[in-house]
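Render this sequence as a predicted structure.
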Amino acid sequence: RDEAHRFANTFKAELRSKKIRESVLDEFPGLGRVRKQDLMTHFRSIEHLRKASVDQICDVKGIGPKMAERLHAFLHQTPSVSPAACDSSSDSPPDPLPLPPRKG
């Protein structure tokens, strides 16, 4: 039974680390493994990081104002979308998701 739990826990840990390793943040120059992990620990998801302000990104250890501005701009680049795919009936942006409460 202990061996089965060890195997399951190891498998889950590998999945979590793979999820951290493979993200849109890999495409941002100047952001290494440690800073990427700190950002994901702080914001818990890319979606929450995208909704964060520059000041909120600066709150993460190792992220200064210049990098926060560059990262914010990088995350808000609009991908090329065909006009037919856009719904022009709503010009207002969607409501931001609230950040989940931090543990600890």
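Summary. The CA atoms of residues 86 and 92 lie 13 Å apart. The radius of gyration is 17 Å.
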